Amino acid sequence: MSMVIDLLSVDKIMKILPHRYPFLLVDRILELEPGKRAVGIKNVSINEPFFQGHFPRTPVFPGVLILEALAQVGACALLSEEKHKSSLAYLAGIDKFRFRRVVVPGDQLLLEVELIKMKGSIGKARGKATVEGAAAAEGEFLFALEAK
């Protein structure tokens, strides 16, 4: 039986993930079931450096960073499992992924990720990012584990 952990602040997230500013894209983990699933949030702020060029008059949160935020939430689920604590997780592929709406400064992304398959050091996850209940992006992605 797995344990569900509620609410990880950014300092606890940084103990799980190697990412740091400006590339840590998860502000909080709301739910965590190690090795199975996680739910996190990303607060989108106009102060983020990429908005200077994406796009100057119409700031849009880059879709690839939505995918990266989902992958980081998935990595929290995976790397919080005891047997993977000393590993790194790399994004290895993208399957059936779609961007559904534009995300802009002031939005809060709810990031839900379920780990659906693991074979050796390669795994698959399904993720969905929403803003106020509306789908922003969803799909599946592959990850590869590497021992540190």
From TrEMBL:
Active site: 54
EC number per UniProt: 4.2.1.59
S-adenosyl-L-methionine listed as a keyword: no
Subcellular location as annotated: Cytoplasm
Catalyses which reaction(s): a (3R)-hydroxyacyl-[ACP] = a (2E)-enoyl-[ACP] + H2O
Keywords for the protein's UniProt record, in alphabetical order: Cytoplasm, Lipid A biosynthesis, Lipid biosynthesis, Lipid metabolism, Lyase
An annotated GO cellular component: membrane
Domain of life (superkingdom): Bacteria
CDD domains xref list: FabZ (cd01288)
Top-tier EC class: lyase
Pfam families: FabA
Family annotation (SUPFAM superfamilies): Thioesterase/thiol ester dehydrase-isomerase (SSF54637)
GO biological process: fatty acid biosynthetic process; lipid A biosynthetic process
A GO molecular function held by the record: (3R)-hydroxyacyl-[acyl-carrier-protein] dehydratase activity
Family statement: Belongs to the thioester dehydratase family. FabZ subfamily.
UniProt-listed PANTHER family: 3-HYDROXYACYL-[ACYL-CARRIER-PROTEIN] DEHYDRATASE (PTHR30272)
Function of the protein: Involved in unsaturated fatty acids biosynthesis. Catalyzes the dehydration of short chain beta-hydroxyacyl-ACPs and long chain saturated and unsaturated beta-hydroxyacyl-ACPs.
Protein name: 3-hydroxyacyl-[acyl-carrier-protein] dehydratase FabZ
Gene name per UniProt: fabZ
